[in-house]
UniProtKB/TrEMBL annotation, chains A, B:
Transcription keyword on record: yes
Domain HTH tetR-type: 14-74
Lineage, uppermost ranks: Bacteria, Bacillati, Actinomycetota, Actinomycetes, Kitasatosporales
Keywords for the protein's UniProt record, in alphabetical order: DNA-binding, Transcription, Transcription regulation
Annotated protein name in UniProt: TetR/AcrR family transcriptional regulator
Residues in the DNA-binding region annotation: 37-56
GO molecular function terms noted in the UniProt entry: DNA-binding transcription factor activity; transcription cis-regulatory region binding
Annotated source species: Streptomyces coelicoflavus
PROSITE patterns (UniProt xref): HTH_TETR_2 (PS50977)
Amino acid sequence: MSVQQSGRRERKKAATRQKIADTALRLFLERGYDAVGIRDVAAEADVAVTTLFSHFASKEALVFEQDEDFERRLTQAVTDRAPQEPLVPALRREILALVRHCTADSAAPIWHMIDASPALRKYDDSIRLRHADALAQAIAADPALGRSETAARTIARFVIDAYSLAREAPDPEAALDEIFPMIDAAWEAAGAPRHT
Amino acid sequence: MSVQQSGRRERKKAATRQKIADTALRLFLERGYDAVGIRDVAAEADVAVTTLFSHFASKEALVFEQDEDFERRLTQAVTDRAPQEPLVPALRREILALVRHCTADSAAPIWHMIDASPALRKYDDSIRLRHADALAQAIAADPALGRSETAARTIARFVIDAYSLAREAPDPEAALDEIFPMIDAAWEAAGAPRHT
DNA sequence: TTATTTAAAGCTATCCGTTAGTGTTACGGT
DNA sequence: ACCGTAACACTAACGGATAGCTTTAAATAA
């Protein structure tokens, strides 16, 4: 039961996963998401359909492969911020970085594809909501903030809203400039139940 | 082209639709959403599967039959409010009524079923987002409010968040008491670009 | 080394939601 | 009475996803 980190097995598994993801994204961008079937992806990646689904939970998940650290980055923006740095600006910085990342030219075709597919949009929405839950937990867990759990959940949602609103806005950074003062005001209005 | 409201045809169509919805909801509550297939519902309602799908766009839509006026009620809360009544309290009243409606004992089993099914939760989330778009339009269309389109979209999202957060909270009304002051602060912070 | 265990991948067959194609019935307008 | 068409039915299939079982090959024990 030695803890071999880089056995051949795990490398091969990771390679298979990567090959599937790469193939899928390539085919999706070439022919369109709806025009490519799971069987096409599996055949082109030279794996069985069951293997594909042992690596990815659904067809949509193939597209959001890279997006995995979104949740981690947001929660770390809360937990790893400088001592006594206020919450909202820290979150704003991270959201700005994330929005820039997904509106960059390199990511544009992918997000264009997502926006064009109802199934992908729906999937994106639902993972964002799960991210909001994680963010809410991180906020609620910080005793220095001293807000109720409801306030934490609420602000977490608002921050996720900021991300998706900015992503869809014609000028994402200007949208954030407008939304975050609103979030800040909401956060202040939530008050600190006990701060003596 | 007379506007016959109660032709036999339309009555029969409505009856068929109602029978399908009733049958579906009954079977779902009896045996569980996942344990009942579309073919089961169609057989029990004595219609063809294709007929079922000509009345409802998806299996999930069968569950949200009643919930159709959600969007209309919210947008009307904006457009039909008393002259010069501020926006946020009007929205708060309506959200409170909607939350009470869906947390009432009669609706409890349905919402329990929804919360238990990932597919239904996802569907619910996505229709709420579409409702937010409609609400944003209603807000942006009111010249008396004088907020930017981004601010309108943002507040609309926040209001929808309030609904779903309250619905899931242990004490929904207390949650609204906490969330709406935050929304109000956000709305005030958005300011009125031109009000002279 | 050889043997054993176990994780990864494969194959087959199928379920289930959903849709296309094609009729058939019966209501409504003329 | 006639015709157009809306509602519904039937068959067949498509595409995503899964269950059950076998095969391959890496890790570990002997």
